[in-house]
Design a protein that fits this description.
This protein is α/β, with parallel strands linked by helices. 32% of the residues lie in helices and 21% in strands. Bound molecules: zinc ion. Zinc ion binds next to loops.
Length: 408
């Protein structure tokens, strides 16, 4: 039986079993379509002791991360989010040229570039070599390493102890959470602050966001479970914000337990109380998720079958990781979606893993004039509906699959 990656308790409780699925970022070239394709179980457990929701790690992280296809800078709204964060945290902590900022999972430098513009020294830590190289090319100093205690000790020795450690959408992808948070405690100066953003497990459960589950995301956190994890490494969460990003995220603020200069805020206590009331610290809350996901699948297939019976054409917009969980779990291939499009040129000419749907540039939609455009990165639906408003000219409509199938 697998054990919890935080507290080592046996994982005896299933949150949802999404069956067999390929790694969601392993887009295929045309030649690869004729080869065998590895599928792994996508079975999600909840720990009965610490309530960490998690999938087993089937593939070594260096296999997943050395050639990663996701470049943060291809999303306008994500860039705006990063820029606003940098303005906010620079003012809140009074950061300047004598401080040092380290971002974990710094991707292509999409966030640190805004600190660089303010003259604040930065270092990015990004395991994917191709993505780290893109950051360096845009003037963001970046080391290509997996982060943990050993990397943290090396960085401190090289003079990179941090006044601010930021990590956005990286915690879910950490195979050894104890080594990672231990590394943060090592790297953080005595009065330093760490902020981490991650999708909130409460929103995943409440809004059917099962498609945000994939093999590359090992862990799914409530605020309460994050508090337990940080506390185990001598770090106190003293504040938290709820953000709309990725369907509903938390931005947690941590500091060393001994640094009492930053008292725990009302917001942190209130969220902890809300999760307690909402049952996130008990198994019963997790038991109903499976039926909820089954029903979401039936509703999406109902819509697609009806549309195809009426002779309508349906294409996808976006080829995000979450799209691949949805497509594989629901069995949606070119029988339903003619193709999908993505702004990331890395994906053009490739095919979605498992379902083999071709990926084209967005211009393709204007050429083929589909009746429906299924938005796979539903967290960006407002941005996409605005960008692609021209489909209205031929009566095209947008379809958003999560939390409920909805036509716009
Ligand atoms: Zn546990």
């Amino acid at each position: 039986m697998p054990t919890c990656r935080f507290c080592q308790t046996d994982l005896a409780h299933t949150l949802i079993d999404l069956g067999m699925s390929p790694l969601c970022e392993s887009f295929l070239s045309r030649e690869q379509l004729n080869q065998m394709e590895p599928f792994y179980p996508l079975h999600v457990y909840v720990c009965a002791r610490c309530f960490l929701v998690q999938v087993e790690q089937y593939v070594a992280p260096d296999h997943i991360f050395t050639e990663y296809a996701y470049f943060s800078s291809y999303s306008d709204s994500w860039l705006r989010h990063a820029s606003a964060y940098v303005d906010m945290i620079t003012a809140r902590l009074g950061l300047g040229p004598r401080h040092h900022v380290v971002e974990l999972g710094s991707n292509d430098g999409y966030l640190l570039q805004y600190f660089v513009k303010k003259g604040i020294p930065v270092l990015g830590v990004e395991p994917a070599r191709n993505v780290a190289a893109a950051a360096v090319a845009r003037g963001v100093p970046t080391v290509s390493r997996l982060f943990g205690r050993e990397t943290a000790r090396d960085l401190v020795a090289e003079g990179h102890a941090a006044d601010l450690i930021a990590g956005n959408n990286v915690l879910a992808q950490v195979p050894d959470v104890n080594d990672f948070i231990g590394g943060i405690a090592t790297l953080l100066r005595p009065t330093g602050v760490v902020t981490i953003e991650f999708p909130h497990l409460e929103r995943l459960l409440d809004e059917n966001q099962f498609d945000t589950i994939y093999h590359e995301h090992f862990s799914y956190f409530s605020f309460s479970t994050a508090e337990r994890l940080f506390a185990a490494h001598g770090l106190t969460l003293f504040d938290v914000e709820e953000l709309p990003t990725h369907g509903g995220s938390l931005r947690i603020y941590g500091r060393h337990a001994g640094d009492t200069s930053r008292p725990v805020t009302e917001r942190a206590s209130a969220l902890r109380a809300r999760e307690e009331t909402g049952g996130l610290n008990g198994l019963a809350r997790y038991a109903s998720f499976t039926e909820q996901v089954h029903e979401t699948k039936r509703r999406l297939l109902d819509f697609l079958i009806a549309a195809k019976r009426q002779g309508k054409s349906v294409v996808g917009y976006g080829a995000p990781g979450k799209g691949n969980t949805l497509l594989n779990y629901c069995g949606i291939r070119t029988d339903f979606l003619d193709y999908t499009v993505d702004r990331n040129p890395y994906k053009h000419g490739k095919f979605t893993p498992g379902t083999h749907i071709p990926i084209h540039p967005p211009e393709r939609i204007a050429e083929t004039r589909p009746d429906y455009v299924l938005i796979l990165p539903w967290n960006l639906k407002d941005e996409i509906i605005e960008q692609m408003a021209s489909i209205r000219a031929w009566g095209g409509q947008f379809v958003v699959p999560i939390p409920d199938v909805k036509v716009h």
